[in-house]
Every structure is written in C-alpha cells, then in structure tokens.
Amino acid sequence: MELLKQRIREEGHVLGDKVLKVDSFLNHQIDPVLMMEVGEEFARRFADAGVTKILTIESSGIAAAMTAALKMDVKVVFARKKKSALMNEEVYMTKVHSFTKNETNEVTVLKKFLGANEKVLIIDDFLANGEAAMGLAHLVEQAGSEVVGIGIVIEKAFQDGGKRLRQHGFKVESLARIAAFTDGQVQFVEECVQ
Ligand code: 5GP
Asked: Can you tell me which residues bind 5-phospho-alpha-D-ribose 1-diphosphate (predicted)?
C-alpha cells in the first residue's frame, strides 16, 4: 500500500536493528484518515473470505481492526493483555510473548464475544515473530471458529512470523513488508534486488 509506505518512510524511526517506531500515525497518535484507507485495503483483500468477525489485540491493532470492521460491516473484538476486574465471566485464554516488551501476557477474550462457527479475520499492527497472531488464532480455535485470514499493517519480513503463519496455512496479507533496516533506513521488500 503505497500511501502507508510513504508515511513509514517519512515518519518512521528505526530503533536498533529490529524495531520500527511509527507513533505519529499508528502506535500512539492515530491518523484516522490513513487508518480508514488501511481498513478499506483490508476489506478489499479479504472481500471473498466471508468474514463474520474481526479479532485483534490491544492496543495498537484496534484502530486498523476498527476501520476494517466498519468497511466489512462486522463487529471487532480486542483481546486483553491484562486481566480486568470487569472480566468476571468465562474467558478463553492463551499466553503471548511480547516482542517489544519482552514479557509474557495471559491474553484473554470473553467467551460471549467469540462464539463458535465464526469466520474470523485477525488484524494486528505489526508482525515480527508471529507470537501475537498465533495466540489470537489459538483463541479462535478454542472458540470452535475458523481463522479465514490474517491482516497485518506492517510486516517485518526479515523476522520469522510471516513464514511461520503462512507455513501454518493462514492467508496473510500485509500492507507494507519491510525487508531490512539499512543504516537506519527502511527498505521495503519490493525495493530489494532478488
Ligand atoms: P510478534 O507477536 O509477531 O512477535 O510481534 C508483533 C507484536 O509486537 C505487535 O502486536 C506489535 O505490537 C509488537 N511489535 C513487534 N515489532 C514491532 C515494531 O517494530 N514496532 C512496533 N511499534 N511494535 C512492534
């Protein structure tokens, strides 16, 4: 998605050799106009998947999931990373190791919001090692529903997550795929000479 790549080039900050900070439009401040475009693109790419529900994880996946859900006319549920006193009902739970925080969270979703026989589209902001997406897929499996696709805003293709999810048989669509960070600059997959 060219517009997204342009914003990453202009506003992205590379931290170390593996992390990209895009807090001016996705991870802290959110650009709703760009997020609408992102949602439309996901809706286009998964138009034939028969999606009945979108599942994401708090917090940075919510904006993209929300606009995609709006376009696809389905509800969006976000899995929680921390237990809330308000969640005193039955939950599905899985453990997810956070790449950026280097901690393992018990990720939960209320059973009443993730029923059986749903066709679920998983959406997240970044794909690194695939822990978050695999965890969400595990929640869907527990519910007796099906993952019909995984939509990622920014995939870091030099990490293992994309390969892991595709080998698992999931249809993964990433709107921007990063091949490498070279001298603090983002290099997209299409720009790399094969
Ligand atoms: P994974 O679970 O695929 O290893 O990592 C994806 C999760 O970690 C995403 O939910 C995202 O919040 C976070 N993440 C991974 N890499 C980055 C990154 O380079 N930048 C930011 N902002 N978040 C990242």
From this structure: 128-132
